[in-house]
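Continuing the series of single-chain predictions for the mutant panel. This is the parent chain; the variants come on the following pages.
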Amino acid sequence: MHNGSVPRLGRIVETALYVDDLAKSRRFYVDILGCVPLLDSARLLALSVSDVSVLLLFQRGATLAPLPTAGGVVPPHGATGAQHVAFAVGADAVDAWLARLAEHGVAVESRVRWQRGGESIYIRDPDGHSIELITPGLWVIY
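Parent structure:
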């Protein structure tokens, strides 16, 4: 019986981006950003982000049909166009990130110092997705 209260959600466990070339994406997210591979297949690259969340990189088009598994059916999903994801970085790590990005030839598209606090560095991944490296301060919860 529902008593009217909303059960509390936990943290976001997974988020997904849809990519054209898993090998290029692997080089970007693993070799440059430091994510750790958990699963690597022709359909999907699952990456640990700081041991607290999972970034799923799906081969574009590979998720448009339902996927039967032994435990049930995964519904179809997908996206077109540039997507966005933000990664937390420490304020004391901004210069190190800028140097690392430059070392790997990754252009900084934009830097924003937020009025509430914090700073964002915007870059693009190999598929043109907007990737943000953000320091604490913008959000009341971060």
